[in-house]
Amino acid sequence: MTGGASGFGAAIAETYAQISAAVGRELEFLPQIETARGLQALSDILTAPGVSRAVFGHLDYSLDLGCAPEWEPLLHTRAEIVLRSRRAGALPPVDSVTPELKDTERLAREAEAARRMGLGGKLLIHPAQVAPVSGAFAPSDAELDWARRVLAALEQDTSGAVAVDGKMIDKPVEEAARRILARARSSDAGA
């Protein structure tokens, strides 16, 4: 594999195609971004057949960069993975693990931060991590209430100037409300 990022990404796409051919059916691949080189090639990797989303491997990535494996030093990388995933039309990426098995407060805090950044899930390494992460990715009661009030206000007023809680409701706000309700349905279906 020589060349720049596109050569690397193309080689990965070719490898995925070879694996699917060897198995005899299409497979879903979740490439884990663990190096600066992998991040550089992410746009190409996300367009490979069988790739629906990326996964972030922050422990290996921080080792590659020589930075602390903590949230703040890797904030830009997480944002870049979300941005590139969106630009490629991929599903929201999955965040890395929280390796502290018993620190459920940190786990919940990191899962909430990941959701707020636009990540679509989080890798888990222990069954005790399921509930805190599920809770962080499910909409809160306040979010659900707000989303329902936004959609109800839009249904009642077709004049074009609608407000909820003193704030204007336009298409992006309407879409945000719809996404919150979709996340709730998705959380209910997974339970």
Walkthrough of the structure:
The chain has 191 residues and is mainly α. The chain folds into two domains: 5-137, Phosphoenolpyruvate-binding domains (TIM Barrel); 141-190, no CATH class. It contains nine helices and six strands. The strands form three sheets. Strands 1-2 form a two-stranded parallel ribbon. Strands 3-4 form a two-stranded parallel sheet. The chain has a two-stranded antiparallel sheet with strand order 5-6. The N and C termini lie far apart (43 Å).
CATH-wise, what's the superfamily of the largest domain? Phosphoenolpyruvate-binding domains
Q: Which runs of at least 5 residues are low in confidence (pLDDT < 50)?
A: none
Structural class: mainly alpha
Strand content: 5-15%
CATH class of the largest domain: Alpha Beta
- N- and C-termini, Cα separation: 43 Å
Q: Look at the structure and give the mean pLDDT.
A: 90
The number of domains: 2
Neighbour order of strands in the largest sheet: 1-2
Please trace the helix and strand order, writing H or E for each element.
Answer: HEHHEHHEHEHHEEH
Proper CATH architecture of the largest domain: Alpha-Beta Barrel
Question: What fraction, in percent, of the residue positions are helical?
Answer: 55-70%
Summarize this entry quickly:
The protein has 191 residues and is mostly helical.
